[in-house]
Design brief:
By secondary structure, this protein is an alpha+beta fold. It has one domain. It has 4 helices and 4 strands. A 4-stranded antiparallel beta sheet has the order 1-4-2-3. It is elongated and about 45 Å long.
């Protein structure tokens, strides 16, 4: 998964079911894109904006009766994103 893949990821919207706050998720995704672009450009961040641990521990405000992102979509995506960050972190520890 590359930064453009992360940037173009789309989640199903919820309105009457519990979802995640869209702005919080979008801000988190922007941070992920910024960090991945640094890795892709060969600029190993001394203090990455995000790490696999931060992806794993990400929590978002639940929404109900207002539009949010489907929780399962976001959680599944975060699992994949964590794997990508783990790979980058392993590659850059050597």
């Amino acid at each position: 998964m590359r930064s453009d893949d992360v940037l173009n990821e789309q989640f199903r919207a919820t309105k009457y079911n519990v979802g995640y706050d869209q702005q919080e998720v979008d801000t988190f995704i922007d941070r992920a894109v910024d960090t991945l672009r640094k890795y892709e450009q060969g600029n190993i961040p001394t203090e990455p904006l995000l790490t696999a641990q931060k992806v794993d521990s990400a929590r978002f405000t639940p929404t109900k009766f207002r539009e949010g992102y489907d929780q399962e979509d976001v959680d599944t995506f975060l699992d994949r994103l964590s794997d990508v960050f783990q790979a980058h972190e392993r590659d850059h520890q050597q």
